[in-house]
Task: structure prediction
Amino acid sequence: MGASVLQVKNLRTVLDLATGSVPVVDDVSFDVGAGETLGIVGESGSGKSMTALSIMQVLPQPIGRIESGEILLDQTDLVGLPEEEIAKVRGRDIGMILQDPHTSLNPVFTIGNQVIEALQINNPGTPRKSLLGRVVDLLRQVNVADAERRVHAYPHQMSGGMKQRVVGAIAIAGAPKVIIADEPTTALDVTIQLQYLELLRDIQEETGTAIIFITHDLGIVAKLCHKLVVMYGGKIVESGTVADVFRAPSHPYTEALLKSVPSVDQKVDRLYAIDGQPPALSVDRKGCSFAPRCPYVRDICTHQVPQHDAGLSGADTHLAACWNMGRDR
Amino acid sequence: MLRFIFTRLSHMLIALFVITVIVFSLSHLTGSPIDALLPDDATQQQIDSLTEHLGLDRPYYVQYLTFLQNAAVGDFGDSTKWKGNTAAAVVLERLPATLKLGGLAVLISVVVAIPLGVLSAVWRGSVFDRMAGVIALLGQSFPAFWLGIILMWIFAVMLGWFPTSGYGGLSYMILPAIAMAWFQIAALTRLTRSAMLEVLDTEYVKLARVKGVNERSVIWKHAFRNAAIVPVTYFGVLAGSLLTGSVVVETVFAWPGTGLLAIDAIRGRDFPVVQSVVMFFAVFYLLANFLVDVLYAVVDPRIRFS
Result:
């Protein structure tokens, strides 16, 4: 694991709604190195996808914008770069895999066509014919069976797992330094999920790319990731290596998430569920956003935002933002 | 693909059959043509002999089959108003004028409405979008005959840029074509806009962006290819309504096409010509919709391969 390829510093992204500017990503910082996999974990609406869209700068227009912070790719800040420069980063330096393979391929173009397009962006001026061989190689690399024939297929003629492999092929077409995978296995069958995760790991081993893996599945994080950040209400509530966080979850939300994962070792009548709803988007928020659902809530939690502190594992890479840390609970 | 075309063709034949039945029945509902053909003081003998001569004494199904047989070769009888011509010849003579005007109107509609719809979706909420909305609202509110008269008044009478009416070259066609096209521009713009809005929100457009496709290709290649199916659908309606629209606009501008012919033929109780006009319109409408079906398949592979 080398130096950081991608470093996000104090990122704040807002949506300009009729009610005002609502922060959806708030003071988020993390970094990921070559060959390293970072998991971003959280419920729907926790800001994990918005973080990914901010990095790619494809936020919903015209309402989404990065308000402050830095996104450093090899020490170059992407925030504030003109659109033409950002367009060169997309697909070339950072590849992305979206959640639903059934909707993320264009239904009117062949698979080959869509992979070729990605290759052409990275090799401008190269005639299409000469790229066809590369397409077949890429499809083989993501384990698409019968690749020579499949290049002429349309998305509706393929299964979800196959389509997601094609999306993977598009993501790696530019040999990116970072791949952002936004819940890539959520829409797949459980049996296919595992295959796909192994595929991602193989690609990483071959190419040494950094992966940012967005998920709500802690099981996948344990299997695939080296470190993780846990997001809640647009903020990072806990971050650290997978080993540290799983061993000593330091934020009540992380603790609750880990408790709500079913285990084969323990037989329970009812799975643990976190009471209440994730916070709705709002303009002004006071205190810790998890406070309304937190079993350990105290007075200070409701009106002052907790800062990041050393987590319970004691490791200096392990941080959590909670007023109750270290206190008996 | 061949099977697809074959199925569509057979549907077209069924529709055509129904249309012939309707045209045949309607012409009988309007009363006996004998009354129109003979003077008021005709003797019973004259009436009987003409009835027999025209075959009107035979059972309806025999008459229908005869009608069908003749219609198949384009024979709808002789015009009673334009004497010495077959009804089909009268219609065919006027058809190019209507096709020219209708073609120009379709061209104007598509060339104006598609970019207007696509760009107002891309820049939704902008001044451009609002202007396009106003253009569409006006188009859908102005009746074609009224718009025709107003255009004539402003651009022909007041400004003198175009001739007021009559048959001639491009300068004669522009005002009636705009009068016909504006309503279609309105409908087509709104349809294209909403189709584009929906498509621009899809995951594949997002994927195209994150894979580094430039914005122009995202809009015109990835998004519009998918949104196009909606305006293509409307093309069938467009073709049909330009024919019906021609009846009104050709009358306002004294443009000697089939629309004006239909009005003249109805006024002159020239049933063979009315029948031929209706049949020509019907066939044209069916062909336009058949073309739409084929275009569907060209645009969308999911239709082509199912």
Remarks:
- The CA atoms of residues 120 and 260 of chain A lie 45 Å apart.
